[in-house]
Give the backbone structure.
Amino acid sequence: MLLYHTSKEEIRHPDIRRGRKNADFGHGFYLTPDRDFTYRWARDNAVVNIYEFDEEGLDIHTFERDTDWFDYIFHNRRATDKLDKDVIVGPIANDTIFDTLGILSSGYVKAEDAIKLLMIGPCYTQYAIKTDKAAANLRFVSSEKITGTDPAILKQEQDQYMRLFSEELNKIL
């Protein structure tokens, strides 16, 4: 399968230890199979790195966009990654997860309502390559420098997302 990673530079040899401990799925090198998502969100002068990935022989945990996923991300935001897997696959948490978790921890919103907020918007997939064994199954194919992304498309998607988020939040509060 092909996976994509956007960066400021070409990355031929990904470092699985470079990622933040408190990212969605903890330490790891993050990629997505969603080509359109990658190119739509890439900034001007970014580099989209393209890799082939072979899942055979790897211990992979896959999350759906549900309460298990939410709980796992909630704990990872506090740097408490508990899954010992080669790869973790699941939805990318939307950009408001920090706000959602802040609302939750402040006591304004219950967990079941916070999950409703996290379900808003399109669902894109991410792969977190977490072990050397998994990284060995990732082969650099090519890279492409991005120039001329259309900020209007992003703004339209963000505006629609914020409208839906506000509507759901108003129902909850």
